[in-house]
């Protein structure tokens, strides 16, 4: 599976803890992240990550582009709901595209753990079928 990891600044420590706790599961998958999130995770774990630009500089949009091209299967986006972001439209666009393309999306640690455990248990295997299809299942 192809998984995107994104965290706003106040959630980056939490993201590193999540990535550390679930490193054996995450290590089996292809990982993407926005710039600073990816840098932190790679500095503090042995995970290999393809880093996009930093979120405020277009990284959220790059992740959104991966979604729109059927190149992502899951998004873990630990958002800060209490701080205004300069790139709020990009944040909303990423969340919107996840819904447009039915990509499993966690926006907090509780759901993130459920998704990662579900991934391990095979609950997301349906994504492999979609990945194997030449045409998208929905006409978008
Ligand atoms: O801003 C972000 C998500 O909206 C995250 O970007 P960074 O990982 O570069 O901090």
Question: In words, what does this structure look like?
Answer:
With 140 residues, the protein is of the alpha/beta class. The protein has a single domain (2-128), classed as Methylglyoxal synthase-like domain (Rossmann fold). Helix content is 48%, strand content 14%. The chain is built from seven helices and five strands, in the order βααβαβαβαβαα. The protein has helices spanning 12-21, 23-26, 35-44, 59-68, 88-100, 109-121, 126-132; strands at 2-7, 30-33, 49-51, 74-78, 105-106. It has a five-stranded parallel β-sheet with strand order 3-2-1-4-5, sandwiched between helices. The protein is globular and about 35 Å long. Bound molecules: 1,3-dihydroxyacetonephosphate. The site of 1,3-dihydroxyacetonephosphate has 12 residues, from α3 and α4. InterPro entries: Methylgl_synth, Methylglyoxal_synth_AS, MGS-like_dom, MGS-like_dom_sf. Its EC number is 4.2.3.3. It catalyses: dihydroxyacetone phosphate = methylglyoxal + phosphate. The active site is at residue 60. One of its GO terms (molecular function) is methylglyoxal synthase activity.
């Amino acid at each position: 599976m192809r998984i995107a990891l994104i965290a706003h600044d106040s959630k980056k420590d939490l993201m590193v803890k999540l990535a550390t706790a679930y490193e054996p599961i995450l290590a089996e998958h292809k990982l993407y992240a926005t710039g600073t999130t990816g840098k932190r995770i790679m500095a503090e774990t042995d995970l290999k990550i393809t880093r996009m630009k930093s979120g405020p500089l277009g990284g959220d949009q790059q992740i959104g582009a991966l979604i729109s091209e059927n190149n992502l299967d899951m998004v873990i986006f630990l958002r800060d709901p209490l701080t205004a972001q300069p790139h709020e439209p990009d944040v909303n666009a990423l969340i919107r595209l996840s819904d447009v393309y039915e990509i499993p999306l966690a926006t907090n640690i509780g759901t993130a753990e459920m998704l990662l455990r579900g991934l391990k248990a095979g609950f997301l295997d349906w994504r492999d079928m979609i990945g194997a299809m030449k045409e998208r299942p929905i006409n978008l």
